[in-house]
């Protein structure tokens, strides 16, 4: 079986006027991504997601990656990242850059989807040899909104949907941080996992002051308190707070993550399966993190395809250092609750929460079926 064609499909959905939302780094008035569709000579179709500016990354997929992988076996996904880093694909000078890593991820993930369909196994079993039935989803919610939404509303909605954990946006100022976290904790309850995301909007000093002020709320982790490039800032925060730090959604490829892990700048890395380099690279990152006892919890703000990829990756993660079935905390999985039809409308069977649990697809590959007719409604 060889790859016959590679197609990039840029997608977007425009929000209604007045309904922009986001975090401290700005708000968005649309949801966009690029899907990668690979087809083999026997008609098997694989899907991946390149989570970046749609037109730009779509051009990169078709101009650079398509020629490089057409004619290859899907098993060549294992070496695709190395070919990018060495410059065999795309040229030596751009292999580590964000758009190249996103394009690589979309193509490589689609190749793994085909591999799973070839052998009749879900990707998480191919990656790890284990079978995982479910994870505990946390609601990614309480966004900063253009319409100044009462922060209690999305949290009440998440609780009514069965979520037992949540991550919220903070980082505008100390008073607002305290108010939003207080509301979330009151609604979720004292025993629920609660995480906060600053989106890198603070200086180290501001972040330390905020995190210390929130200590009474027993936060599970603090995400991106300073910008991703502020390595010394993470180091300074670690010296002054006793709350786990997490980062990774704005990091690309193994070299970015290796610095986070080697220097113990964070306690949790968060690769995104739309931009981290693909499944092989994500598996490498997970093993690298395990050597330093750093947790891995994927960042997920993707379409239904990227969500499926992240879920398959999460299901493959090792228990180390815990013995099987002896982990003191659940495997938490990000589940975005903002408006995004690219997440649910393009799948024939959308993901759903059942009594606080998210099932891991057990069908071959990513375990999903893409509704290609619905894709056309959002194609750019």
From TrEMBL:
Pfam families: MR_MLE_C, MR_MLE_N. The keyword Lyase applies. PROSITE patterns: MR_MLE_2 (PS00909). Keywords: Lyase. CDD domains: MR_like. GO terms for molecular function: lyase activity. Residues 151-244 form the Mandelate racemase/muconate lactonizing enzyme C-terminal domain. It comes from the Archaea. GO terms for biological process: amino acid catabolic process. SUPFAM superfamilies: Enolase C-terminal domain-like (SSF51604), Enolase N-terminal domain-like (SSF54826). InterPro entries: DgoD-like, Enolase-like_C_sf, Enolase-like_N, Enolase_C-like, Mandel_Rmase/mucon_lact_enz_CS, Mandelate_racemase_C, Mandelate_racemase_N_dom. This is Mandelate racemase/muconate lactonizing enzyme family protein.
